[in-house]
């Protein structure tokens, strides 16, 4: 009788290990799985267990969520595949709903228990109703080399674009910038107020204005602009060490929602357990001063690039948004809003399962950005200013972005066709 199997085929369950307060994560943390990540999914462990069961040169084929391909929690799984297996076939069903009961995007991976030959046949399936998948694969698959970074299926022209960006660019995380998430209150109904309520509180006590700030949500932020919804945030951040007794009218406003609901004890009906006081936001927000600096802000969920530069209004953003501070902000605003950025991000981002991308901190930090000289920074500053005055349009900015990267006409056409398709 053989000690293992020549073939393992299956559809492992999609269960987050941190579900139910990390019960599964605690269970498997000490089992020495190389693919283990507390924020990951149990199907990653199924891949590794299947590998263990295989005979040498045996093959495993699973259909699972495709989050391991790009998400931060999939790093251990990608590393395991690259260093321990020979991935032979990868089919990424990007945006195609394979299972009626699941909203996650899926993929099919087949690997052999063998040395990685770096000759993976890979393709993306973007439309439903394909009658003969094997024929589609033969006609549309490309040979791709996958390592420990995000696994991205690229055509020959896309591989050329990627090579050019890798040659000249560096990840955004290596620029002189800092990226933070917006404010998590734990109970928005109490801490986010209307402009009318703000006026009422300030009329009762002008001191209230000290801790009430204008707020943008993801839906308010557009490409190069925003639509302020007249909403404001009560900024009782723990890091500010506010004495709520100094703001009696704000205290009463919060108390109207009930102490039992606002307390941070983790009890049923209360907010998540923290060491914060009942009137404070859930996040400490030690970086609150960065909201008063020039910054780029954007929403996490979007099908398009929507970044806006805030230099004067000192907007705060909610936890579904991010802010970026540092140098070269005007150029970075232009670049992040460009068609090139939109295209490149689509190749590294995770999706929501319903067609939109997650512009998360981890992913956007990986985005390759070409360098700019002081003169080029001035050019983009001028273009951004003229764009606000409607003297130029985004196409002119895009053209200057392409020039930075020395793209060919064919490559530019490819990028712009992608931009028009979304």
Notes on the structure:
This protein is 33% helix and 21% strand. It is of the alpha+beta class. The chain has 3 domains: 5-153, Rossmann fold, CATH 3.40.50; 156-176 and 327-422, no CATH class; 182-294 and 311-320, no CATH class. It has a 6-stranded mixed β-sheet. The chain has a 4-stranded antiparallel β-sheet with strand order 8-18-14-16, with helices on one face. Strands 9-13-10-17 form a 4-stranded mixed β-sheet. Strand 11 and strand 12 (225-226) form a beta hairpin. Helix 13 (374-388) runs antiparallel to helix 14.
Reported for the largest beta sheet, the result is:
6 strands, mixed
Mean pLDDT reading:
93
Annotation, overall tally of beta strands: 20
Report the C-alpha radius of gyration, rounded. 25 Å
Strand content: 15-25%
Structural class given helices, strands, pairing?
alpha+beta
What is the distance, rounded to the nearest whole angstrom, between the alpha carbons of the first and last residues? Answer: 54 Å
In order across it, which strands form the biggest sheet? 1-2-4-3-5-6
Shape: globular
The CATH class of the largest domain: Alpha Beta
Summarize the amount of helix as a percent range: 25-40%
């Amino acid at each position: 009788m053989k000690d293992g199997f020549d073939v393992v085929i299956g559809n492992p369950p999609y269960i987050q290990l941190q579900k139910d307060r990390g019960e599964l994560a605690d269970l498997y943390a000490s089992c020495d799985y190389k693919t283990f990540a507390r924020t990951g999914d149990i199907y990653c462990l199924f891949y590794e267990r299947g590998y263990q069961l295989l005979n040498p040169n045996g093959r495993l084929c699973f259909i699972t969520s495709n989050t391991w391909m790009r998400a931060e929690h999939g790093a251990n799984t990608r590393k395991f595949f690259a260093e321990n297996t020979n991935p032979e076939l990868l089919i990424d069903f990007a945006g195609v709903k394979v299972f009626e009961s699941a909203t996650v995007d899926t993929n099919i991976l087949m690997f052999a228990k063998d040395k990685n030959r770096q000759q993976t046949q890979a393709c993306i399936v973007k439309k439903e109703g394909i009658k003969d998948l094997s024929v589609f694969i033969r006609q549309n698959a490309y040979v791709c080399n996958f390592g420990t970074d995000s696994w991205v299926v690229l055509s020959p022209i896309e591989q050329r674009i990627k090579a050019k960006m890798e040659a000249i660019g560096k990840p955004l995380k290596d620029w002189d910038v800092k990226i933070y998430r917006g404010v998590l209150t734990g109970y928005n109904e109490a801490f986010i107020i209307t402009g009318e309520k703000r006026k009422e509180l300030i009329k009762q006590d002008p001191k209230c204005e000290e801790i009430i700030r204008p707020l943008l949500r993801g839906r308010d932020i557009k490409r190069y602009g925003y639509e302020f919804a007249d909403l404001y945030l009560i900024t009782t951040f723990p890091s500010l060490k506010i004495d709520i007794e100094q703001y009696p009218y704000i205290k009463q406003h919060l108390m109207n929602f009930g102490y039992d609901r606002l307390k941070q004890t983790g009890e049923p009906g209360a907010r998540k357990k923290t060491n914060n006081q009942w009137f404070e936001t859930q996040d400490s927000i030690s970086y609150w001063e960065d909201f008063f600096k020039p910054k780029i802000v954007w929403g996490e969920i979007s099908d398009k690039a929507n970044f806006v530069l805030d230099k004067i209004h000192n907007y705060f953003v909610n936890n579904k948004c991010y802010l970026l501070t540092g140098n070269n902000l005007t150029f970075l605003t232009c670049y992040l809003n460009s068609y090139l950025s939109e295209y490149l991000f689509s190749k590294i981002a995770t999706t929501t399962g319903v067609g939109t991308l997650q512009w998360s901190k981890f992913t956007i930090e990986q985005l390759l950005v070409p360098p700019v000289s002081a003169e080029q920074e001035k050019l983009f500053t001028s273009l951004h200013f003229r764009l606000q005055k409607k003297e130029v349009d985004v196409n002119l900015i895009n053209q200057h972005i392409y020039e930075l990267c020395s793209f060919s006409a064919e490559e530019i056409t490819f990028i712009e066709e992608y931009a028009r398709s979304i």
